[in-house]
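Each record in this resource describes a single protein on a pair of labelled lines. An example record follows, reproduced without changes.
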Amino acid sequence: MAATATNNPSSSTLSSSLSNPSPIPRTHKTPPSFSPKTLPKPTFPLKTSSLSHTHKPSSFALHSKNPISDIFSAAKQNPDSNSIDYVDDEKPREECGVVGIYGDPEASRLCYLALHALQHRGQEGAGIVCVKDDVLQSITGVGLVSEVFNQTKLDQLPGDLAIGHVRYSTAGSSMLKNVQPFVAGYRFGSVGVAHNGNLVNYRSLRAKLEDNGSIFNTSSDTEVVLHLIAISKHRPFILRIVDACEQIEGAYSMVFVTKDKLVAVRDPHGFRPLVMGRRSNGSVVFASETCALDLIEATYEREVFPGEVVVVDKEGVQSLCLMSHPQPKQCIFEHIYFALPNSVVFGRSVYESRRVFGEILATEAPVDCDVVIAVPDSGVVAALGYAAKAGVAFQQGLIRSHYVGRTFIEPSQKIRDFGVKLKLSPVRAVLEGKRVVVVDDSIVRGTTSSKIVRLLKEAGAKEVHMRIASPPIIGSCYYGVDTPSSEELISNRMSIEEIREFIGSDSLAFLPIGKLEKMLGSQSPNFCYACFSGKYPVEPTEVKVKRVGDSLDDGLVGSFENIDGGWVQANQSPKEAKDKEFESSII
């Protein structure tokens, strides 16, 4: 039976040398209890199409009223009135990234590097579990990968089998215990798990398990999976995983580790990405994005298909069908915002997708302009596509600071739009006297967009035309993305013209969902558009409600400790749920 250990050594410098173990044979076995299916490798032809949302320029209107202020009052102020807690911005946030490595003696170091490549998927916590002599060693911590790990800690994670996790969290005092990977012991050994996604039936499963005597140490839905594996009546570990996955609903791309196996699992809809690669020495790698494979010099082989279980052990690689799966519903926001441009996600280049989004905007929502700029970093590729198609120069009109920390001391004389100015600086030489097209990937609450427009105007821009490389977001995500409730989404509350007036731009255009679907061609039905349409492929049975602190787009007020999540049954209306939540958290 495997054991579990946790270590917290001090810091030092990282160095390593990679050796070459013998290659892992490629075999594919299917137990009689499964019905494997041939899952075709997805291909996504790139097509351009038209866009229909254009607006005539109008005079610049400055609005100071937040469109969600009728619903949310200001959160509690920081006890130090001159300091603020700065939350990155109002964009939806991917909640985590995972990696798994089998067959490399430098597994923990490679895992560390792969997690660094996936840092954009989660910045609040990181962890690695490594296997040595049948013992699962675990180190987790709060912060960036480079802050959690160092040479000393990696030296205490020997072995050729490892999994890792980076996490975005709503923070709070209990955050550390929720940092993955989780490790648990059960009667047949120990198991570690790292999970990207969200289970929509988490609360009901947890309540049932607790009624039967299970004790939970965290508030994470991932812990439910471990309990389901532990109580399964099946003896083989793989069958225990399948038994657990048959009971959970929602989005999950997971990697498991035991004393001698690495297992990758993807939910039947394939909401979140998970890819497989191989290094030149034969070691097998799983990761949320191909950018992680690139950094550790692993060659991309394929996706883990929706509904698939891939097992890697001394016998080689086995591919099993988890269960019959419906139409894939892959998250379109991976291509709009989450994934890095150099990644291949769901079988297509993220860079090419975003470039075509920009081309479509330029073709179907043209406007006379002198310069095209982007809201960095996620709007850059779409802006390049827009500029190339429009025949207008792309320039760097906004400079992003990559050294923004968590808390800042603000001068007693308040600075307007302080949070945005900390992160984005306008270039007056590019903007002054110019008609500017600014391209961004999305608008969520609209408050940050209004501040950006004001920033550009104050820097001398003659006109500001906003182009958004996604359809309007009208629905919350329940499949592993941190998004506000629908009442907080500006596109769910206002028309496009009302949004334009609120943010103060001279024109505004979104990418229509019909044009997005047309661009995806025959692969369009394979994507999830719930945040744009409000139609959910897996209907959430429970609704996550945000507290007041999480309703703020750039952390200008509200302390970090106030940000948390609560759960209510889905049969409550959103307004009833919010009223109840606010009464307990504010009054």
Q: What stands out?
A: Confidence is low (pLDDT under 50) at residues 1-89, 170-174, 544-587. The radius of gyration is 24 Å. The first helix runs from residue 107 to 117.
